[in-house]
């Protein structure tokens, strides 16, 4: 009997989760892709991987020097 109650509770939880997922507002992929392309185009001047860095000191990807003065 306990196993049936447990199974019933699991099924209710799954049903509630599916109802929450079904209620999510969705947009077509074509609209999402257009929005992504527009965002990238609008922000490409701020992307340091596309335009580079103003100096080597602000570049977090530069190689660290291995030479130290003793």
Detailed description of the structure:
Residues 4-70 form the G protein gamma domain. It comes from Pieris macdunnoughi. Keywords: Cell membrane, Lipoprotein, Membrane, Methylation, Prenylation, Transducer. By secondary structure, the protein is mainly α. The protein has one domain: G Protein Gi Gamma 2 (Irregular), CATH 4.10.260. 57% of the residues lie in helices and 0% in strands. The chain is built from three helices and no strands. The chain has helices at residues 2-22, 29-43, 48-51. The longest helix has 21 residues, at 2-22. The radius of gyration is 26 Å and the shape is elongated. The mean pLDDT is 87.
Instruction: Give the radius of gyration.
Output: 26 Å
Number of beta-strand segments: 0
Name of the CATH architecture: Irregular
Q: In this structure, how is the largest beta sheet organized?
A: none
Structural shape: elongated
- Pick out the low-confidence regions: none
Q: Specify the CATH class.
A: Few Secondary Structures
Our estimate of the beta-strand percent is: under 5%
Number of domains: 1
Helix run count: 3
Task: Specify the structural class.
Answer: mainly alpha
How much helicity do the residues have?
Answer: 55-70%
Distance between the termini: 77 Å
What sequence of helices (H) and strands (E) makes up the elements? HHH
């Amino acid at each position: 009997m306990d196993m049936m109650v447990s199974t019933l509770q699991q099924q209710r939880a799954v049903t509630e989760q599916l109802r929450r997922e079904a209620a999510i507002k969705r947009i077509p992929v074509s609209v999402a892709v257009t929005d992504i392309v527009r965002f990238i185009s609008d922000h490409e001047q701020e992307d340091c991987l596309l335009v580079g860095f103003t100096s080597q000191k602000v570049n977090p990807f530069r190689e660290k020097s291995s030479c130290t003065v003793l």
